Each structure stands twice: as structure tokens, then as C-alpha cells.
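User: Could you write out the 3D structure of this protein bound to adenosine-5'-diphosphate? I've included everything you need below.
Assistant: Certainly. Input first, then the structure.
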Amino acid sequence: MTQAVPSITDPALLGDGGTLTGRKPLIEIRNVSAGYENKRAKTRLIALRDVTLEVYPGEFLAIVGPSGCGKTTLINMIAGFMKPLEGTITVRGEKVDGPSADRAMVFQDYAVLPWRTVYNNVKFALENRRPRPNKDELATRIAKVLAMVGLSGFEQSYPYELSGGMRQRVGIARALVSDPEILLMDEPFGAVDAMTREAMQAEFEKIIAETGQTVFFITHSIDEAVALADRVVVVSSRPGHIKEIVDIDLPRSRFAEGVKSNPRFGELREHIWGLLQAEALGAKIGGAGV
Ligand SMILES: Nc1ncnc2c1ncn2[C@@H]1O[C@H](COP(=O)(O)OP(=O)(O)O)[C@@H](O)[C@H]1O
Ligand SMILES: [Mg+2]
């Protein structure tokens, strides 16, 4: 297929994928392997093998790969929830040695506190902050992020009163409120229906354009990865390793321009689809599937 859209050849309109070289990486994952010990059976499952990856400041990086290939394992190590068996992960040159406020995680299953209002769920993220922001400062920040995610007016609602999409926005607001440098998102829109999901993707693209945060985003959806990311990392089946990193050379703002009808969107999606298809077949033939 030929490239039909002239804007894509204009370097000024390229996604960040085209302009990464020369910048210093924010996150550096060096030769990382990871796994889980089963102490009783005295076995070790290797989830990831020799992963090397750099994430640049302000980049939106999406990870796709078959179920069980180690995506969550990788994001948990960047978050500092678990350690690699081999290799190192650094953020701004410093080794990750546990969770930190500059790396906020958004989980798939909302992880909102059911007994707290929307306002107090978001406030939760700031409660252990030192120095603790004063009440007015808190109110201003919380109002700002709730407006960003479209939840103004729902401050006093409880999670059970909200739809799945709204609950997920609470999770996103909670991650945004502490203004972390890095947003770690593990299938954040995986539990919402298709229509809501697309609306949330569009809103999220706008939010990120405003905040300039670096996003490490795991998804099952190739469409979602191509629509949102500057680069898409395709991970092989377990033990996961990087199969290919695909630059997404689509102009922004993507949703405002109806990205999905851009022929280049289709090409990129086909390409990634092919990589994953080969992976699924290889896994079946090789017996290494999950
Ligand atoms: N806590 C755990 N204990 C043992 N094995 C685990 C644990 N978490 C994940 N695994 C295994 O590690 C592999 C990778 O899992 P995960 O990182 O969750 O994959 P993904 O997120 O890509 O679906 C899978 O085979 C999974 O069963
Ligand atoms: Mg996972």
C-alpha cells in the first residue's frame, strides 16, 4: 500500500517517534529478565527475557503482546513493586528501588476506594505527601483534575453511583493529581465498553497534550496503541522479549483529525497485527503458548 496522506511526510507533523534521537531517555530498561519463584515446587517461571528499552521524556509508549507475555510484570518493575532477576531499570539515571510519587500507576480494575467519595478518592493520592498541601491548595488541584477527566459535579458521589467509565476516570484523576512525571497504565480502558473507551482515549490524548507527561501504556488493543502512542513496542509470547518497536508517524491531535480513517493508521495496524499473528502461530507451533 502506498502512503497517500501528504501530511505524514511533513516532519513538523510527525509524532514524537520521529524526533526521539538525541534526547536523553527518562526510563532506561537494560537487559532485564524477570520471573517468579515457586518455592514449594522449586521452579522458576521466566516471564521476561533480556528486555532493553528506553522511554523518552514526554513520550507516549504503548506495549502490546499476547496475554501472559510479561507486560504487567514489566510495568510492576518500573513502578518499583518488584525487582528484575537480571538487568537494571533506571529513571533519570537513578536505579528504581521501590515505588515513588513521580511514577503513578493506573490499574485496569479501577482500584477506587468504595467507601470514599470521588473527591476523597482523588485526595487519597495526596494524603501522604510531605509537605502536605493545605486545604485550599488541595481543593484547587482536585477541582482541576476532576475537570480534566470530565467529573466536575460528581465530587460527592460514591463509586457505586458511577458507571465503569466514570470510575476509571476517578483512577486517572487520582494518578494525575500528584502531577507525576510518569504515568504507568496497565490496560486502563480494558474494562469499559467500546463507545466509552473511544471517548476516553480521545479525552486522554487531550489531557496528555496539556500535561506533557511521559506515558507507559499497556493495552490489548492494537487500535488503541496506534491511536495513542508515539511508539508501539510489540512483545513476543512468554518469555517476553521485544519483537519490534514501531514508530507511529501519525500527526496529532489524532482524534480531532479522525485518525482511524487515515490510511496510514490502517497500514500501521496491519503491520502490528501481522507481528502478533506470527507470534500466536509461533507460540502454537513451538508449544510455548500460554
Ligand atoms: N505473582 C505471580 N506469581 C507467579 N507467576 C506469575 C505472577 N504474576 C504473573 N505470573 C506469570 O508470569 C507470566 C507473565 O505474567 P504477566 O506479566 O501478568 O503477563 P501479561 O500482563 O502480559 O498478561 C505469566 O505466565 C503469569 O502466569
Ligand atoms: Mg497484564
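The first strand starts at residue 27 and ends at 38.
User: Perfect, thank you.
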